[in-house]
Amino acid sequence: MPTREILAQDYRSKAIFFIKSLKNNLSPKFKKEISQILDWDERKMNDFQLGKLELDAIGLSKLAAHFNFSLKAFEEDRVDFKTINDHRNGKEDALPERYTKGPLTMGNVIINDTLEQVGKFFGAHLKECALNDLQIGDYTSKYPDKYLSIQTLSDLYDFLASYGLNETDIEYLGASCCRAVLNKPEMKELSNIPCDQEFFKAFFNFVSKYVASHFIFNIVENSSHQFILDLTHNQEVEKHFAPERIGSHLTCCNMLGGFKNTFVHRGIHPIASHPKCIHRGDAVCRFNFDF
């Protein structure tokens, strides 16, 4: 286990790297902001870089709040300085490359629904922390019709788990998001389908087309007593990601909760299970719902 001295040295090196990176990435117009936020003159800045002055937790928190990044991202060396610089220069739609490369198949509407439920059930502060950790700000709410990489939602779940949310909580978020989707005006026509089996078929076709187009949905069983759904990723996604690295098991927890609520919406309370998972080495993710 690292000693306090090693941890302090690690913190110092990260802090020095962070300040240098900010100074190197921000234009001269914004370099003064660092000194103003920390209330440091040039001598103090030099003393800090020489190891004669500490950047304490309060100072770091001030920088995090001002530049909209999380302390967790700082600890894990994940702060995207280019995004900070772009935002400071008025590029509101700038995002970390992590969320813009590869297939852009995760609709912002789903991310917005998830964040809305996080704020509703776990507090506005956690929602704000999540936005800062991913460094996406209010992008998804400003541009609801645009798409992000599927990595975005996976990172969001991982962040929430790091704050203490467990698999049951993630399932609950999935169920809440599903309720939000089912209440959307465009779902009204589907809700009027009288036959449960036809409704389930139509609903999952809708989801595969408009919500999670990176998945291939295969309905294995759709009877009066059981529904089985297999999911695999399409070829476009697999060109960019190894299948087992797409999302995480928390993504599956979220989907399990969401899919289960689809049946509850029809007055059916199934026993739900997830016997096969890509993240456990299986070829498909399978979701079973027994009535």
Structure description:
The protein is an alpha+beta fold. It has 3 domains: 4-94, no CATH class; 98-169, no CATH class; 194-290. Helices cover 56% and strands 11% of the residues. A 4-stranded antiparallel sheet has the order 3-4-6-5. A two-stranded antiparallel sheet has the order 1-2. Helix 7 (108-122) runs antiparallel to helix 8 (124-134) and helix 7 packs across helix 11. The model has no long low-confidence stretch (mean pLDDT 81).
Characteristic terms for this protein:
two-stranded antiparallel ribbon, elongated, 291 residues, alpha+beta, 3 domains, 4-stranded antiparallel sheet
Give a short overview.
The protein is of the alpha+beta class and 291 residues long.
Low-pLDDT runs of 5+ residues are none
Q: Tell me the series of helices and strands, N- to C-terminal.
A: HHHHHHEHHHEHHHHEEHHEE
The residue-averaged pLDDT reads 81
Share of helix among residues?
Answer: 55-70%
Distance N to C terminus: 50 Å
Q: What percent of residues are in strands? A: 5-15%
Tally of strands: 6
Radius of gyration: 22 Å
Question: Can you summarize the main beta sheet?
Answer: 4 strands, antiparallel
Alpha plus pi helix count:
15
Write down the overall geometry: elongated
Q: Which strand order does the major sheet show? A: 3-4-6-5
Classify the secondary structure makeup into a structural class. Answer: alpha+beta
The overall number of domains is 3
